[in-house]
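Example 5.3 — Alkaline phosphatase family protein
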Amino acid sequence: MSVDVPRMEELLGPVPVAGYGDGCGGGRGGARHLSGVLPALSAAIGHPVPTEVHRDPKAVQRALGLPDARSAVVVLVDGLGFWNLAMRLGHAPYLRSLMNEPANLRPISTCTPSTTVAAMSTFGTGTCPGLTCMTGYTQRNPRTGGLAQLIQFRDSIAPRDLQRQPTVFERLTAQGVRVTSSGLPKFAASPLTEAALRGGDYIGNVAPAERVRVAAAAAAEPGLTYLYIRDADKVGHTYGWDSEKWIGTFERIDAQLALLHRSVPRGTLIVISADHGMIAADPALRVDIAEHEALRRGVALVGGEARAPMLYVEDGVDAREVAERWRSFLGGHALVMTREEACSQGVFGPLDPRAGSMIGDVLVYALGAATIVDSRTQSDAATRLPSVHGSRTMLEMDIPCLIDLT
Ligand SMILES: [Zn+2]
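Solution (predicted structure tokens):
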């Protein structure tokens, strides 16, 4: 089975805002969203965990087409968007075999922004960035007025204080269900793990095949196993997702997933998803805020990231005026909106009352292959990454939810 891949122009265009909750009809989002994956799996293994966004995990399970199973393994492949995968399917025999199943041919949606910290917490809690208060790679820390970086939680509110939604892993563990995470040792006690994926046992291993074997062995007991695969994102940022290096990485990931398929006990449910896709940035479309007075004026702080900057305006400055100025400067290269506009459209989903003090006053979503960087505060290398994500295009937003009942 082959996948019909839209033209690149369409893939680099914006998609409609994903709806949050189970009642979103045929639109984007609803159950077909990263936030639904763990609630659906909790129902599939017989221990449904309702969340603030998904009240009926059984309905989410049905909508995603997950069969019941006593043991499930969920794999999150960082940065492996649905269309990134579809465009390189010839390099991935195991993933290609899953595409014979019609249910696997439809992508689901990640959250906005399409970035790791927002998506991991959306996934881990079964909710949305508006509720987890993890709304960008960097965001304002209201207690200091400066920027917090949420991968390492640098200059941030502590993980459990910032992210107060219970995780699905915690809720399952509280029900007496086995939850096992298999990943890199250095992430076992990382602040991002604590914020987004706390709960259960974490088994760290340096070797990728060992992580797969640990996950497969854990799956012998009823419960939920989580396997994290990092390298598609890492190699994408360093060399470009369109590079030969990325293809080699993708081939190794496919081999790891095939090993998982071969190693789990029969009857184990495997679900493979991702936190976001990736676009190849065009250096000619790199806009540096530092170089343009029209972009600097009235802006006190720039958070977010190159595909989704969040602007915090100076005291007394009207965010609508800044948004209008940015909109006319960037033209068709970005969507620009105020926080009020974004929140009323449900971009971040339902909101914790604290989220408003962290989300930018003006939100910018790059379109096409554009990036919007700030050389005053970002390293030169960080402003020139060959592949990036964070925005609201189809290539970044559509993620796989591949089902393999072994
Ligand atoms: Zn990521």
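Remark. The two ends are 19 Å apart (CA to CA).
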